[in-house]
Amino acid sequence: PTPVLLDCDPGHDDAVAILLALGSPSLRLLGITTCFGNCAVEDATRNAQRVLALAGREDVPVAVGAAGPMRGEVALGNYVHGVSGLDGPALPEPTVAPVHETATELLARCLIDSPEPVTVVVTGPMTNLGVLLSEEPGLTEHIREVIFMGGSTERGNHTPTAEFNTFADPEALDVVLSTGVPVRMVGLNLTHQALATPAVVERMSAMPHLVGRTCAEWMGFFGDSYERIWEFEAPPVHDPCTIAPLLDPDVIRWRDCFVAVELDGTWTRGTTVVDLFGRLPDRTPNAAVAMELDAERYWDLILTALDRLGSP
Ligand code: BDR
Ligand code: CA
């Protein structure tokens, strides 16, 4: 199986990403590290642990990460995910504590100990990885690729132009891009194709187990937020779009592009700049950018994984 580290801020869609990784035998989840983002880092940590408890997989180590960004103010997404960061159905309480290592310590140790390079998936602000690689740039040798949810080739969501994760810590993304490590970016232009339609939610709630029904209820809460704030008819389930291409290379179509992130704009801090048409001739592509999702395959991957977890 492909060794994977997941750095996240659960979050309803992060929670589904965790379940997709756990329910996919071709991946081996080495650990989960948490970050501020959808909620304070303490809540993100507890939410990650509650999701592991729901899946019966508390053997996966969880390490507490950054409480705020490399520079600037803390931005939180509770206005989307509720006070706990994962509001909605009741969840089992964790029975295992987080590990004593910090997120960067756990990431570094797992990277060094792995016999093969590790895929690092980031579905929250990039802080933990940005801090780690600015301190220990040599660790990129142990990383197969970084695949992250953030940014967009188009508009934003947290601000008119900036997506939440890249807004929350643009300096950290800038560090990661500047290391030259292979990067795949999954932005809003892609994840807005990953809608949990009523038909998808119905398939979840019809599952004869708590894992499926819990996801259906999460989609209800998340969907209400998306309708209220952004007038979406169904919620875009962003974060599992980083895991799905590790399972099926054809689920997303990519384009190699130069990507940068705005650090200083008056209105545009945290906005990703994606050179789709090679308008910056002295810049070469530094990332594969997700362009098109096969939504049917995507939901099949997720529902299959949920069923594996729910009916072992
Ligand atoms: C991203 O921000 C969070 O609300 C989601 O979990 C996702 O990672 C979408 O902009
Ligand atoms: Ca997230």
UniProtKB/TrEMBL annotation:
| Inosine/uridine-preferring nucleoside hydrolase domain mapped to chain residues | 4-300
Mind telling me which InterPro entries this protein's record contains? I/U_nuclsd_hydro_CS, Inosine/uridine_hydrolase_dom, IUNH, Ribo_hydro-like
A Pfam entry, by short name: IU_nuc_hydro
| Family matches, as CDD domains | nuc_hydro_IU_UC_XIUA
Record GO terms (molecular function): hydrolase activity
According to UniProt, the name of this protein is: Pyrimidine-specific ribonucleoside hydrolase RihA
Q: Which UniProt keywords apply?
A: Glycosidase, Hydrolase
Domain of life of the native organism:
Bacteria
Q: Which gene encodes it?
A: rihA
